Structure prediction request, 979 residues.
Amino acid sequence: MAEIAVNIIGLLISAFLFIFSRDFSVSTRPGVPSAAFFPTIISAILLFLSILNLVKYLIAKKKGEVEDPAPIEKAKMLQFFGLVALLFLYAMLWYFHIGHFILNSAVIFTVVCWLLSDETEWWKSALFVLGVTIFIYCLFVMFLRVRLW
Amino acid sequence: MDWSYIIASVLSPSVLLYTLGGIILGMFIGAMPGLSATMGVAILLPLTFWLEPSCGLGMLLGIYNSAIYAGGISAILLGVPGTPASIASTFDGVKISKRGEPTLALWINTFYSVIGGLFGVLCLMVASFPIARFALRFGPPEYTMVAVFGLSMMVAVSGKSISKGVFVGFIGMAVAMVGIDPMNGIKRFTFDQFLLIDGFQFVPIMIGLFGIGEALKQFAESPVSHTKFVKKLDKKDKVVISDFVKESKDARKHQSWREIWKAKWAFLVASVISVIVGAIPGTGGDIASLVSWTQCRNFSKEKDLYGEGSEEALAVTCAANNACIGGAMTTMLTLGIPGDSVTAILIGALMMYNYTPGPLLFSEHPDMVIVLFGILIVCNIMILFTGNLGSKLFAQFTKLPRSWISVTIIIFSLVGSYAIQNSVFDVIVCLVAGLFGFLLARGDFPTGPIVLALILGEMVESNFIRTMMLPPGTYSTFFVRPISLVLIILTVLSLFGPSVIKRIKKARNK
Amino acid sequence: MKKALAVLLLVALVAIPVFAQGGAEKFPSRQITIVCQASPGGSSDLNCRTIAPGMEQALGVPVVVENRAGAGGGIAMSYCASAPADGYTIAHLPLDIAQVEPAGNSDAVPSDFRFLARVSHHPAAIIVKADSPFQTFEDYIAYAKEHPGEITVGNSGMGAVWHLAACQLEQAAGISLNHIPFEGAGPSITALMGGHIDSICASAAEVRSHVQSGNLRILAVMSDERFPVFPEVPTAKECGIDVSVLCWLAFGVPAGTPDDVFNTLHDALKTSYESEAYQAMLASNGYTPGWMEPEEMQAYAEAEYELYSELIPRVLGYTE
Prediction:
């Protein structure tokens, strides 16, 4: 599945590059390649390689030679999307300056830690995450004087 | 020449103290993905204005050397390069560490970084003028061919399937096309978004692919947690988590002299390549270690082990990025031209102290030049000691529960990508790159080629078009300039050489 | 026990931001940020980082530098233009502020800011290798007139300051040059020293060490007065070509900042500008100290903006 998905992304990128580079395909100087020169070449190579990869994959699949990675369980998938959603939530909070760096990081990453873990008690993880967060905060804000959040 | 002054400047307690301070600071900066050596030196530069020249330079050179070295620490332990210069160290480093020998991997990083660094200093001391003069001969056509040569390594870092590797590489090239076009000033694929005008930053994508992608993959492939299926683990297993470090044997803490001697040729090849790459303005440790890794793989007896956790391969990359420092310093000191981004800042620091880098520095202030050499040597010796002390500490990290390691990787990756230019947009880029990295890993695609393409994509394009802009402006320029021609031949050889040799051997055996 | 610990922890976490913010009665009561439009390590960054400690002393609160590079400085300038006008965000505004909007890199224009002052400037210059056949600026111009488009001139990127300077020279002298863009001024200097191009248009300050060491030669500087570091180099005006391109560095706050806050910052900036450390930085980098008071600076910046909004679209070939 993932293999097909990546190849399709490649096809989309190829089409994207080709279509949008038409806007600047005229060279501004005689004898010098235009700004669309490289995008067009890349688009062509991507098109060729993604089709090649797909054909190879399908042939191998027909012959039964494909070793797909073990499928992910349904419960795992749910956890996985939860994790990804949490990370994006974290970025969004950051983007809109909601909350404080230490607070948000500690809470969100404790939940992430709880999602990831299967043995440690959550409060141990919370302490660990808090420690890492404060370490980073000190390194950046106090020492390097970079403003986070 | 006043030797007592020189010795007093290099070995005075205050200089040693500031250098040590720089080295310890550099370790944190280097080991944090996203905080680069350039940033560390730039931020600390104003603080050194109030110091004696030798103290200030000791501190800055300490940060520079140790940040490049420490980038390898996170590459080995987390699989995330701490600085771009240690991208190649992730190929083998993380595998050695996962195999259960993190202390050994860290020792290799320390030891080879130091001897690589010392080799660089040696080249700087004996041959800085010829090296720098050679580096200046690199014009647009030569840069184009260096980049093409670099891109040809996509094949080498592809792993099992070349078509997959090159495919992924060209996705990287496509990403590198976004942003203002370097030659005509046309905004490509930006859709009037100011954030996209400079294109995507390289470091967030790198951190996302290596850090977040890997963390997601490990998560997805581990058994379901928080269900009744999770078996109760006994107390011992709670401490040593089997997924990350297979078993905590960690028996070998360092290599034997015999093993070190065995890697001598690989070391020499890598160091020489890196000194030259470092001296060429605009190319730094990232390209040097990638080129060294590939070239040493071509010559190595244990070729198949490269990328699978070879100690020699790790040694090569660690030596390469530190040897690069010596190379970068040659062009800086002899010509006043920065060999990489850190030396660009160091020029500013030297100017501040009224030492203008250039040929005159050697004739007017020979003492200062020797003091600089001395400080560089001291830096490397200090890294050897602090590094060995530090790696015992850092190696403990792999014994933490797996979830803690993953969370640390994720936090470091996100904060690191923010720190590049204080932009949350980069954090989102890092997350998206992480998701893509996860897809790649699931589909059994290599990630190395993307990184190569991102480093070299713009270099190929802008220098190719620049060559066409300069007179005579024809394709033949690439073939009539000697260095460019040699690079073309090398590219062809490294692309087709191995398979041709294989065929010849096969034919002989028949 | 565990629960109590967790509750305590959460309370502590909530408390941190509350305490950190505090009240804001008298300006300044908390940290002030100088937003630099370039990444760490360049001349803009150095300028910000050297001015900050002096302001910190004068104001009594931390003054930190925040780098927001991207889009030729456009990212930082848009960010500052829309920052609250309370004096806690200071923008580093080099010449680029007059160029980002015409180049389409930002929507910030000089009138979005109240300039605190200009602190320094350095002129554009035409530089050749020491062994170049062009002995004087007149030679250079004469050759370019006879052979249009033949002389290669490196710059720091299409649409960047030094490319525009070369274009202004072309226009004023009625010549045509072959512009070769590089990724910044550094690589163009390298290419010139390697003999890959004939000349470059760059900051006279940036090449001074190469000129002093005898590798490069400045043919002329494009300013009204001669460049203090090399008083023997003629200005373009003296050679009969009326062109003047200064790269200036200034600081500003968002428009609408109250007068008392503005004056406090202005005085702090002046104290820091006059400090020994800052003047030493200017001297060692070859920047000309060029203090200019707010009103004059505001008018100057807006005049520059007018100039570049006409020049940039023409040079880059935009039709809009």
